[in-house]
Amino acid sequence: MSGLSLRVLSIASEFFPLIKTGGLADIAGALPAAMAREDVHILTLLPAYPAVLAAVSSEPAVDLWDLPGGPANILRARSPSGADLLLLDAPHLYARPGGPYHMPDGREWPDNALRFAALARAAEHLGRGALPGYLPDIVHAHDWQTALAPAYLALGAGPRPKTVVTIHNIAFQGLFPPDLLPSLHLPTSAFAAEGVEFYGQIGFLKAGLFYADKITTVSPSYAREIQSAPEGYGLEGLLRKRAVDLSGILNGLDVDIWNPASDPSLPQGYDANDLAGKAAAKLALQQTMGLAPDPEALLFAVISRLTGQKGLDLVLQALPLIRARGGQLALLGTGEPALERGFRAAALADPKSIACRIGYDEGLAHLIQAGSDAILIPSRFEPCGLTQLAGLCYGTLPIVTRVGGLGDTVIDANEAALADGVATGIIVPVASQPSLELALERGFDLWQQQTVWQTVRRRAMTRSVGWDVSARHYRALYDDLLRIA
Predict the structure, then answer these.
(1) Feature table: binding site for ADP-alpha-D-glucose
(2) Cβ atoms within 10 A of the Cβ of 63, count?
(3) What is the DSSP annotation of 260-325?
(4) Where is the Glycosyl transferase family domain (predicted)?
(5) What average pLDDT does the chain have?
């Protein structure tokens, strides 16, 4: 199927631009092109959601009969970006309204265990050569939705490819009752601590972490953090035992899509040498979201799921400080109802300073990145994060907590870093209201020194946030895997 030397079957439940609820889709969508530059061909297996089928042309490839939930077909397709895809066409599992995981009313689909076990089981068949002319060297599973694939491959008979599971967010583990074991085509013997059992339930992610040959997560700091409680969410002991097989590889940003010089969502392009387009984007953003058209106001951005994990309750509490110092906030996101209500109420009370869009709009996300001066990401934990990478790329200084990939990618604008010319943002020491408000005060003070602010902004825009380094790390991981007997 490809002339590239190493073949990887990637399995994911989301894939940008076809289906997206978060950063997993961006990563799965960017990996094929990034790894092709490392002589790796990635073939991605996805569920054939209605939105995916509507966006691509497909053709039958192979029928699979032995799947949880019933038989299904594998379709061959290609994404709009040119990535090679295999789609698990199972209308009884995927042809339904709502998102990939939730019903239209927000509740999880009651058969999610079957829906994603079928995806993992299909990967097992493909890993053993079910698709004529294709036998992968490695099967790479992403998050709990696909993490049973290494288990199926390890528990089955016969030769198998090597396996990798990547943890994008360990807080989401895919836990289901043990009476589903037969329906999931798992042997009774696998329901044990040395297997798929996790505190009396079937743990999809736990199974992947136990059976996969290698484990990765999306930043070096997060790889360390999840080996201790509470960040490990009960899996820290297993991860410590497997520490030699665990590595953290930073996510990259697709800089073909996130590029302020050529971004079609902006009124005009810009780069670190010519920032006129950023000023134009700020005015356009203020007009689009109904904020006062004030170039002097320090405009903060939030592009996020509105959850406690992301520290958005702290941002809500800090709005009086932002308003008192003459700042503005442009927010785009959806999430916990109480936070949605809080930001809506704040925007209604002062629409010239606070703007709130509940939902997600890709074009508006690009305009917010370009038009804002700083982006707020005070997460309580953060595996990697992509919005701070986009902020760096667009000259929108990240204000982030020192957790996970946020601490790995942002250099605090302290005196030493400013003197050495390496600062790229502001670090919040801990996720608390006093710490965030102190960081905001530092931001306002830096904003008053426009020459310094612009120096930091230009330095941020020179940071390498693409996939080149990370792709080399993945290639090295794959090569290491294939050397294992």
Answers:
(1) 20
(2) 11
(3) TTT-TTSSS--BTTB-HHHHHHHHHHHHHHT----TTS-EEEEEEEESTTTTHHHHHHHHHHHHHT
(4) 296-433
(5) 96
**Phi and psi of 426, rounded to 5°?**
-130, 130
What pLDDT does residue 1 have?
47
Q: What is the pLDDT of residue 106?
A: 86
pLDDT digits over 92-129, tens only? 999 999 889 999 988 999 999 999 999 999 999 999 99
Asked if 303 and 368 count as a contact pair (C-beta separation under 8 A), the reply is yes
The closest of 128, 135, 171, 164 to 147, measured between CA atoms, is 164
Phi-psi region of 202 (alpha: psi -120 to 50; beta: other; left: phi over 0): beta
Q: Which CATH architecture does the domain made up of 6-252+468-483 adopt?
A: 3-Layer(aba) Sandwich (3.40)
Please, which residues bridge with residue 213 across strands?
A: none
Q: 333 vs 355, 361, 368, 388, 466, CA distance in Å?
A: 11, 9, 12, 15, 24
Neighbouring CB atoms inside 10 A of 78's CB total: 12
Per-residue pLDDT band at 292 (split at 50, 70, 90): very high
Q: Are 134 and 7 in contact (CB under 8 A)?
A: yes
- Strand, helix or coil for residue 42: strand
Lowest-pLDDT choice from 21-30, 179-188, 442-451: 21-30
Note the Cα 440 to chain centre separation in Å.
26
Which neighbouring-strand residues pair with 89?
A: 73
C-alpha torsion angle, residues 365, 441, 328, 433 (rounded to 10) = 70
Is the pTM higher than 0.70? yes
Residue 328: how many CA atoms within 13 Å on its side-chain side?
A: 26
Reported as a single tens digit per residue, the pLDDT across 129-164 is: 999 999 999 999 999 999 999 999 999 999 999 999
Buried b (16+ CB within 10 A) or exposed e, 468-479: eebbeebbebbe
Q: Is 276-461 a domain of CATH 3.40.50.2000? A: yes
Cis, peptide link before residue 97, omega less than 30° from 0: no
CATH topology agreement for domains 6-252+468-483 and 276-461: yes
Look at residue 2 and tell me whether its pLDDT is greater than 70: no
At 161, give phi and psi (nearest 5°).
-75, 165
What are the residue boundaries of the structural domains of the chain, listed by start?
Answer: 6-252+468-483, 276-461
For residue 485, pLDDT over 70 is answered with no
Rounded to the nearest 5 degrees, what angle is found at the Cα of 186, between the Cα atoms of 184 and 189? 150
Tokens 């991860």, residue located: 239
Q: Which residues fall in the annotated binding site?
A: 20
Residue 407's nearest CA partner among 416, 398, 415 is 398
